[in-house]
Amino acid sequence: MTIILFLVDTSASMNQRTYLGTAFIDVAKAAVETFMKIRSRDPNSRWDRYMLLTYEDPPLNVKAGWKESHATFVSELRHLKAGGLSTLGSSLKHAFDLLNINRMQTGIDTYGQGRCPFYLEPAVIIVITDNSPLTSTSSVQPQLNLPMDSTVPGSELTKEPFRWDQRIFSIVLRMSGSIPSDIGSFPFIPSAETHPIDVMCDVTGGRSYAIFNQKMLNSSLESLVQKVQTGVVINFEKFGPDPPSINDRNDSDANGNLKAPWHTCRKLIYVPRSAQKGYSVGHWPIPEAFWPDATNPNLPPRTAHPNVRFSCTLSDPMVIDNLPFDKYELEPSPLTQYILERRQPNTCWQVHVSNSAKFNDLYHPFGYIKASSALTTVNLFVMPYNYPILLPLLDDLFKIHKLKPTPKWRQQFDNYLKTMPGYYAGPLRRALARMGAPNLVPDQMDNCLSYSVITYLKKLKNQAKVEMDRLLASVGQKIPVHEGIKVSSRTKTSFLKRKDFNELVENLGAVPSIKQELQDYNTFTIGVPVKDIQPQYYRNPYDIPRKNLLDQVKRMRTNFLQTSYNNTKLVDEDQQHSIPVQQMGNYQEYLRKQPPPLRELENTPARLHTFGNPFKVKSNEMKIDEADEAAVFGTSNNNQPKLKRSVSESPPSSPGPRKRKPDDRPLEIVLDSSDDEVNEQTKTMNKVNSVNHVMDYDTSIVNNMKPNANIDMNNKKELGIWLYNNKLKYVCFKEVKKPGRRYEQLFSLMNTVRGSIEVRCAFVKEIIHEANRFKKKTLVQMLEQFEQSMIKVEKAGGVR
């Protein structure tokens, strides 16, 4: 699952207009929708989860989080409004906390047990903001500061607030209010180097985009979609001397500029998702930067990105049969370009992590960097820890000792295990069992952490689960409306508490009754402005907001100049019918607010406009026409009138099916059979009847049926058999046409064919002819075997 988190700037500066006539907040909304449309073209987007956060204070900043649906995301995006401060630092910190609290309860970071690239939850944080400076409640901030106080349990185990599979990409809107003269003069999208977010993007392995026009915005969104990849960021650093130079290598590009340094780079390694399982699969971790000790009561904090050091000493790539290894492709960088330019696909550079060995002055490689054979990509191969020692030992075990280790080999293998971190014991044991050599790694090596550390990690998981539930419950909750500020009683410095109050009143010449008016008002409250409550116009002019003052003055002038009181308008007609753009087309809310319609005075009966009787009332009773069933299978009544005309006689053409009279039913068909056969035929007849009920009976089919010359039309039994077989034939034809190779239903229907052996064989041949039409060779062979078995049973004296 790839998490795509949009952090949209909702500060007041996003209300400024661009040369397109739209505000920055509208441009940000359109950018999010465009990104989602482009991303939906990728088949991997079905595993995406979208989140929406703003610059508001928590929990109002989470508009769409872990549990909200896609419809909620779209609705909250359309209703975003700009107003407030540019608190980018705290908003980014809340975004990281929202992601990391789920990681802590799932335990995918595997603290103290190595870093597993295949245990990842990739997240792409897309920040859409303007070029305004960052602000806070106290002052303007010249740089980006993330508060280090976190409510996420276990945040002290990582030095940075982000993780190695979380990257930040920012879109900095720098569109001017006037039309720029050089719209198409940018050959590429520059980075927002002057904005504080650019440093944060570079630290996490992302980048920033400085947008000056709409064309650059569309190009940046296309580039962003390509950046959404599953992988982790690793900090590669060169160790030791440089490799020997190549004579034909040039250190400058085509324009004469020096190429970027390759000695240190922070880039992504792609972790592919398994096509069969749907998630990433791996075998070996990347070692920690410390030796796990069972006596250490605490875990040292780790960096978000592992510092992998590579040695430029050329060595041969090592691999043996059946030993699993992990292969990860490196993102294009100056390092990959330098390795590909050397054109040495048969050599590799070993990689290691400092302080991963038992003694700090030693290091052991855990893999190597190697160019592909086609010299198109550079791959990181993750192998067992200290693989140059392990692989020869395993090679001798399988090829020389034949899985029967000698004491000398056992001693060498035990010496290797002492130099291997304990968290490699489980993967190595599974790999050896896969190769056919189990029980070589002792079980006690898995306990590489102390009991206090294990207990502490379990406690953090439980705390993270509780905090996650609290966070999910707080999303969508609104802050209660402030009831008002209560007026406190008079203080000692109040005018009424002064000792010379009476003298002051006499000097002012006021009447003594003023003292009674200046009393305490303990029951009074001061109202607090609420955005959701519209001010009551025409009662108190001080209730009119500043932004609506000019419109209100114009409205007052219009009403003042009216000559009649009947024409006074409290609300303008234009204002009454004007709604925001995002609410246009929301007919469901409009219809929900409409009053319910009144009931009719009299319930008029529904009538059928049938020919001959237009006043016929529609009946609610459900009638079943059993005439169609009786036409083929007969009825149980023996006293039926005979058919007035032959079946071969075709009726006059009509647009619809022919109507039958209630007494115009065919004759009964009676067959003698045993009880078991009757039960089997009853089940099959039920299947056929179910098909008959679904498909309307078409009289044209019956009319086109021409009986054979040897059928006596006056014989009820032969006529009934012929009608039954013809109806059954069309049902069997439908079974033949169905895709697949499940023919149980077809053969169960064919077991109910009636008549002599010649009639039944002719029926089977018609089914074989139909199967040949659809080129079903397997079915044709099965039908021929069915016909032969039917003839054999008939010759043997079997009775159907």
UniProtKB/TrEMBL annotation:
It holds the Pfam family INT_SG_DDX_CT_C. GO terms for cellular component: integrator complex. Gene3D superfamilies: von Willebrand factor, type A domain. It comes from the Eukaryota. Residues 3-228 form the VWFA domain. This is VWFA domain-containing protein. Residues 632-666 are annotated as: Disordered. PROSITE patterns: VWFA. One of its GO terms (biological process) is snRNA 3'-end processing.
